[in-house]
Specification:
alpha+beta, 8-stranded mixed beta sheet, globular, binds zinc ion
């Protein structure tokens, strides 16, 4: 029933630093500039490919000066977000990211793929994984050559203390299958696997509990085709024993949220209506878009948000 990853969402510190890293560093496209629907004085940035295709999306809430403390990585959380890049591109990425003053480290090859690791200004951990045969078209105008640019999400790494119940949910209900295993890490994949359809479950019985806050991933979202699948899956999750939210309208998709047994916050989001619902492909991400119910507050919202620039951000 799950098609692929949909997006990964994190709490970050400074809005401009986040834009500079994601646009100028990673070369992603800002596909939507809106506000947190649960706190309209905080931006919600969506980054992805040209159209914001599900499976390419990284999204952030910049909470600087809003009373949120730095979080801590640990059990019950996504601890690393991985993007897919072409085989042979990692040296180019190292040069590019180091030129921006970022610390880049080699990862040991994972399940046959080479990778590097870099942290963003908030301390979030990203990996670039060199993947053969990822046919997705990269965003061509992000200042990164097409033979190097990010294709989309590769996978996420979850950390849990005990993997058994997490695996039971993911394989029994969400449609994932175990495809590989290494010391302390189980790889599951859905819809035939490949970049954008993978999650790695790291397990460590002694891991400290995660603390939500600045510099941590808030949740990972998976894609379903439509409303019917989402409602059916919600019923199955309730029967499994998960607490699941009602269906929430996120304007660009509909969502349900629940915690998997290891404590990681999961979301299941629909493919439609997508990011072209209120902007054209050419102008995506340029204007501040608000949900219809917030339009009456636009002047107040715009007045309170910190000024940012996105035109040639950090490049
Ligand atoms: Zn989300």
């Amino acid at each position: 029933m799950i098609l692929s990853l949909h997006h990964v969402t994190a709490t970050v510190d400074d809005a401009q630093e986040d834009l500079d890293f994601c646009l100028g560093g990673l070369g992603l496209r800002l596909v939507k500039k809106t506000v947190n629907f649960d706190n309209h004085h905080v931006y919600h940035f969506y980054y992805g490919d040209e159209r914001g295709t599900p499976g390419t999306l990284w999204t952030t809430f910049p909470y600087k000066s809003r009373g949120v403390k730095p979080g801590a990585k640990g059990a019950g959380q996504v601890t690393a977000t991985s993007f897919s890049v072409p085989v042979g591109s990692l040296d180019r990425w190292k040069t590019r990211l180091r030129a921006r003053g970022l610390e880049v480290a080699d990862e040991a090859p994972r399940f046959g793929e080479e990778a590097l690791r870099v942290a963003d200004p908030s301390g979030l951990v990203f990996e670039l994984i060199a993947t053969d045969g990822d046919a997705r078209t990269p965003w061509a105008r992000g200042g990164v050559a097409a033979g190097v640019a990010i294709r989309g999400l590769h996978s996420v790494t979850l950390l849990v203390r005990e993997p058994a119940k997490t695996l039971e949910l993911m394989t029994g209900l969400l449609g994932f299958a175990v495809v590989d295993e290494a010391e302390g890490r189980i790889r599951v994949a859905v819809s035939g696997g490949g970049a954008g359809r993978i999650m790695d479950i790291r397990h460590d019985p002694d891991a400290d509990a995660a603390v939500n806050g600045l510099g941590t991933v808030h949740h990972v979202a998976m894609a379903v085709a439509g409303d019917d699948d989402q409602v059916r899956l919600r019923e199955e999750l309730l029967q499994f024993g998960c607490k699941v939210t009602e269906v929430r309208d996120r304007c660009y998709f509909k969502s349900i949220y629940f915690r998997e047994p290891g404590g990681v916050l999961f979301e299941v989001a629909t493919i439609r209506p997508g990011f072209l619902a209120d902007e054209s492909v050419a102008t995506l991400g340029q204007a501040l878009k608000l949900p219809p119910w917030e339009e009456m507050n636009r002047a107040d919202i715009e007045g309170a948000l910190v000024p940012i620039h996105t035109s040639r951000s950090g490049t």
